[in-house]
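A quick aside before the break. I want you to see a complete sequence-to-structure record at least once, exactly as it would be stored in a machine-readable document. Don't worry about memorizing anything.
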Amino acid sequence: MNKNIDQDVVNDFGKEWDQYDQNKLNLKLDEAYLQYFKLLPEKYLNSNAIGFDAGCGSGRWAKFVAPKVRYLYCFDPSQKALNVAQRNLSNYNNCFFECKSINEFSVSEESMDFGYCLGVLHHLPNTLSALSHCVSKLKKDAPFLLYIYYKFDNKPIWFKYIWRFVDINRKLICRFPFKLKLLITRLIAILIYFPLARLSFFLELQGMNVSNIPLSDYRNKTFYFMCTDALDRFGTKLEKRFTKEEISSLMIKSGLSEIEFSNSTPFWVAIGYKK
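That is the input. The structure line, written in tokens, reads:
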């Protein structure tokens, strides 16, 4: 079977989650969870529900889902990342772990009450193949929540020019050894993420709309969160971006319907239901 992974990307994310295991985020992670999961009706996360976290990483989202459901299957192709998830979820005996890619994980077809995959599909060679595999595991009418990097299709044109400059730097930084990437991305967090986030925070206090200030979404997030995301964004060699229409098309082709997008950051978070 085609694993549909880039092994360098898998290795990099294993090192990332080992470095930033998400245990220091405290209450700020609660706010991030609500940003991502507000589209998923709570009725699907009940004591009888069985679902999966595709590309679970450190298990940071599973920590919120596991207490609500019967069983949660957590998959990741990086054993190093999965070790972190197992530590973070050690208080929950209803979590099951498997070191497999999204195209390989082994739960039965049409057996899951819900599923989610946040921040993963844009790092895979074949996004549609991975999404279709996830959907195949769902029962009819079961929800699937996803987050895929956007193409700034709801932003001013100058956002795209900034991204092109950033992407040139990403393609350079991602080639460096991990320790050097870690140092550089921490400097990026200090010199770029933090100042723009604080600027947005104070301008918002003055009643200004800060949605078009780059990195304004970090205005209420911790510096630790910024460091994690800077490494995520600049340390990974495979990154794809999609418009809202392209994501909708992928979801329909994979077998989802009743598609809904979040109208707030991060973009794009979407939900669909198995046909």
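Two observations worth writing down. The mean pLDDT is 94. The chain is about 40% helix and 15% strand. We'll return to this after the break.
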